[in-house]
Amino acid sequence: MPCLHRFHKELLPKHPVELMFIGTFNPVWDVKKGDNPDYFYSRSANQFWCILPHALEQHCLIDKSKRKRRILHQNKIGLSDIIYCIENVNETDDGNDFLMKGFKDEDFERKVSGVYDLEIKFFTEDLKNYIEHNKSSLKGVFLTRKTKKGVDRIWKEWLSIKSHCGKLEIKTGELSSPSPRGGGIRNKIIEWRKALSL
Question: Is the pLDDT of residue 97 over 80?
Answer without folding.
Answer: no
